[in-house]
Amino acid sequence: MKPAWFVVLAAFCAACATPARGSYFEASGPEYLLTIDQDQMMLTLTQTGDRIIFPAVEPRYPRWNGEIHETRNASFRLSVQIRDDRPCQSSHRAIYPITVELRLGNRELHGCGRRIAARR
């Protein structure tokens, strides 16, 4: 059986190699994978494999360098903070330029992200 970090790393690397059509941002953490595109935000919980789809929203731009996306669907509320001002070290010790902080309902999830393309 492969360790959990390997499964997350493999999924994130596969996503990096073949970005979803229209995606402009991807993030991953020990418990999730997130893809943001023009129409939707797709959150995959790696422990269960559940995919949760949220409508895309226009981000807010806080004083710190980054974006905040707040959205909801029929079951969940999601807040995503994309922080360009903090580098992130992933569980496999790679350094990414962006720290991502998610709040899914009452759960806080942390991880690293990267921009794939400019937001349209």
Proportion in β-strands = over 45%
Low-confidence stretches: 1-20
Mean pLDDT: 83
Total helical segments: 1
Strand order in the largest sheet:
4-3-2-1-10-9-6-5
Output the helix-strand order.
HEEEEEEEEEE
Q: What's the end-to-end separation, in Å?
A: 41 Å
Question: Helices and strands: which structural class?
Answer: mainly beta
> Number of folding domains?
1
The count of β-strands is 10
* Fraction of residues in helix: 10-25%
Radius of gyration: 13 Å
Largest sheet: 8 strands, antiparallel
Task: Sum up the overall morphology in one term.
Answer: globular
Explain the layout of strands and helices.
Elements: H1 4-17, E1 23-29, E2 32-37, E3 40-45, E4 51-55, E5 66-72, E6 77-83, E7 88-89, E8 95-96, E9 98-104, E10 107-115
Antiparallel strand pairs: 1-2, 1-10, 2-3, 3-4, 5-6, 6-9, 7-8, 9-10
Describe it:
The chain has one helix at residues 4-17; strands at 23-29, 32-37, 40-45, 51-55, 66-72, 77-83, 88-89, 95-96, 98-104, 107-115. It is globular, with a radius of gyration of 13 Å. It is 12% helix and 48% strand. It is mainly beta and 120 residues long. The relative contact order is 0.20. A hairpin with a 2-residue loop joins strand 1 and strand 2. The chain has one domain. The model is unreliable at 1-20 (pLDDT under 50). The strands form 2 sheets. Strands 4-3-2-1-10-9-6-5 form an 8-stranded antiparallel sheet, covered by helices on one side. The protein starts with a helix and ends in a 5-residue tail after the last strand.
